[in-house]
Write a structure and sequence with these properties.
With 285 residues, this protein is mainly beta. It is built from two helices and 20 strands.
């Protein structure tokens, strides 16, 4: 993964990736005209900067300014192992040899997992939390917590069965009391999965659409406007990606505006998005 190639995307993340004509449409379309996602992926041969082999799954990852360049980090699944990876870039977009780089194993048993994501929440007056989610091959949605000082040590905090039909899931909301994913299924449905932060872990699933969403192997989402979501769906079979402006979710009444095909070719890879702050707000649900 040559992450420095993503730097221009990160810097220009606010640039309109869709036709400015959408600025004259609905509220969701006007917001989407100024939104984009800093989309990236691991290459098929792994990541020499961190020592990871070929990566199959990746979480949202961060590029945080450090005064000399950027500190980059995230979580990924390679082979049977999940890991936390990290390194730094100079202002010249070269790997900084004077700062730590590498990866730390989270654990094994990940070879059949279909999704990995991390939700980090902090707000004034609320208890900060760092939560990881994994969708196992048998359809069990698992949850862990971790400490920022040792982000590769996951502590199990719950699980819920019944998600075997899910193909991909993207985090669209995180609050003091719940996280919400937007998920598509093999049958074509699109759902929200709201997961309360407390125990026991009892997700609340609501349909958003009942058909036509089965083609996407990967969903990637970011905030758009105060309460909306900019969504990208990637179809590995056709190597194409399509963009959507999703209003604040409200079951089947949720407004979804198609924004057309995203430029580029999208072969099967471990796609993820860059964030500039791990505690950035997501208010899509």
């Amino acid at each position: 993964m040559k992450s420095w190639r993503a730097l221009p995307v990160l810097v220009l993340a606010g640039a309109a990736a869709v036709s400015p004509a959408y600025a004259t449409g609905t509220t969701a379309e006007r917001a989407a005209a100024t939104c984009d996602v800093a989309l990236s992926s691991f290459g098929p041969d792994g990541d020499p900067a961190t020592g990871l082999g070929p990566v199959r799954l990746a979480s949202t990852s961060t590029q945080v300014p450090n005064g000399y360049g950027l500190d980059l980090s995230g979580w990924a699944v390679s082979g049977d192992k999940a890991s936390y990876w990290y390194y730094s870039l100079t202002n010249e977009a070269e790997i900084d040899p004077g700062l730590p780089r590498g990866s730390q194993p989270v654990g094994s048993g990940w070879s059949t997992y279909k999704a990995l994501e991390v939700s980090q929440f902090a707000a004034k007056g609320a208890t900060a939390r760092n939560t990881a989610y994994g969708l196992a091959g048998d359809g069990t949605l698992r949850r862990w917590s971790f400490d920022l000082n040792v982000p590769w040590r996951f502590k199990a905090t719950g699980s819920a069965p019944g998600f075997a039909a899910v193909k991909s899931m993207a985090l669209i909301s995180k609050t003091a009391t719940y996280d919400t994913f937007l998920a598509n299924t093999r049958g074509g449905a699109l759902y929200t999965i709201r997961i309360p932060a407390g125990s026991p872990m009892k997700p609340v699933v609501k349909p958003v659409r009942t058909r036509t969403w089965q083609g996407f192997e990967k969903l990637v989402a970011t905030k758009c406007g105060q309460y909306g979501t900019f969504l990208v769906g990637i179809d590995f079979d056709t190597r194409t990606a399509y963009q959507y402006a999703v209003g604040h979710t409200n079951g089947t009444s949720t407004v979804i505006n198609g924004l057309g095909r995203r430029s580029g070719t999208f072969p099967p890879r471990a796609y993820f998005r860059w964030a500039t702050n791990p505690y950035e707000p997501l208010n899509g649900d």
